[in-house]
Amino acid sequence: MKRRFAAILLLALGLALICAMAQADDVRTSGDFQYTLKRDGSAELVAYTGDADNVIIPNGLDGHAITSVQGNPFYYYNSYSDYGVKACTVSVATDHPYLATIQGVLFGKSDARLIYYSPLLTASSYEIPLGIRVIGSRAFYGCGSLTEVNIPESVNEIGQAAFRACSGLKRVELPKGLTSIENETFHSCGSLAEISIPDHVIRIGSNAFWECASLTSVTIPDSVSEIGYAAFGKTGLINVVIPQTVRTIGDNAFGINPSLMSITFPEGMEVIPSGIVFRCTALTEITIPASVRSIGGSAFEACTGLTSVIIPEGVASIGDFAFDRCENLVSVVIPDSVTEIGEHAFDLGTFGSWYVNPNLLITVSRGSVGESYCIANGIRYTSPDVTYGDDDSWLVWPVWESESVAGEDGWWDEVTEAGEDGWWD
């Protein structure tokens, strides 16, 4: 009985704790401000919902002192197409114990955080004060006038989307103590042409440099172990070397880069992610490491500059659309290790209108999954273990069972003469 009572008491305490946590996270409204109540009874400012051009942040809301700010309180998200940062000037009381404004820029005192740099500020350059440790999420969002930001070495954290849509930003020197470039940090910074990633950075987040069209060169240091989804998508990068230290690469990491001419994958890489160089039309050559076991869907889709690909022994699967729309691809080698090939892996066309690449010749072994795939999809192939003359392989069009000249196994029964182009007459 005592044990049952103790169990009931623990359950009740747990439910009380959950309720307290839920209450602490409840968003409350006071005028044009939204806030959550912290455990100590103080308020964390969450959002400003008004439309004033000049906003004064009070010392407290509903009798609760404002002691912190969550992200950028002037950021809003109403829908997929309706989001951004409210452009306004901001000020706080001179005696505010937790917040301060310096030249129109909002700071948090307790965590030395830069919270909000207004898009209305027109300076072309800005120097973040020495001693600031954190640049908050979306702090500079949409500040199109800035061309340069000087970040002191005291900064060791830069939040998500901190410089997103800073369309005029050309140069940023990141502090040496930075260990992570968060998601969307420089998203849509179309003028960004120069950036140095510090040697201590471990992670480059999703969409970190998405649509940085002027960024033609970047060195990924050996400290990096993770590159996120579309991290360098739609940039101007020409050559990319992924260091050996990278263990995780997100899908589309370098996709839609029309200037990308070469990419070096690290030895030890086992999976080529989906869409990693999707629609990189200037890419003319790829070397797939011997360690690779899987090629993801659309990995090299629409890489129209590719003419030949050797898939190394050890690769087991080739994903859907892996080499789809590679219209100049004329030679592919598929090893015996491949046990799975996805839909439209080597086709041309797009959804609903795929067709076979008439210039593509795939080299496979007889009886392999590669050969079966070619036969099933009407792809021209050759087999090095079936020779013609001394050196040349047979060139084979897959033969359907309905054709009277085909043998039971789908191969020609009798051939007496080869044409000048190597095709059987």
Protein model, in words:
By secondary structure, the chain is mainly beta. The protein has two helices and 33 strands. The protein has helices at about 1-25, 370-375; strands at about 25-30, 35, 45-50, 55, 60, 65-70, 75-80, 80-85, 90, 100, 105-110, 115, 125, 135, 150, 155-160, 170-175, 180, 195, 205, 225, 240, 250, 260-265, 270, 295, 310, 315-320, 330-335, 340, 360-365, 380-390, 390-395. It has a five-stranded mixed sheet with strand order 1-2-3-6-5, with helices on one face. Strands 10-11-12-14-16 form a five-stranded mixed sheet, with no helix packed on it. It has a five-stranded mixed sheet with strand order 27-29-31-32-33, with helices on one face. Strand 2 and strand 3 (about 45-50) form a beta hairpin. Residues about 1-25, about 385-395 and about 400-425 have low confidence and may be disordered.
Tell me the radius of gyration. Answer: 29 Å
> So what's the overall shape?
elongated
Q: What is the beta-strand fraction?
A: 25-35%
With strands numbered from the N-terminus, the spatial order across the biggest sheet is: 1-2-3-6-5
Largest sheet: 5 strands, mixed
Q: How many DSSP helices? A: 2
Backbone structural class: mainly beta
Q: What's the structural blueprint in terms of helices and strands?
A:
Layout: H1 2-25, E1 27-30, E2 33-37, E3 43-48, E4 54-57, E5 60-61, E6 64-69, E7 75-79, E8 82-85, E9 89-92, E10 99-102, E11 105-108, E12 113-116, E13 125-127, E14 134-135, E15 148-150, E16 157-158, E17 171-173, E18 180-181, E19 194-196, E20 203-204, E21 226-227, E22 239-241, E23 248-249, E24 262-264, E25 271-272, E26 294-295, E27 308-310, E28 317-318, E29 331-333, E30 340-341, E31 361-363, H2 369-377, E32 381-388, E33 392-396
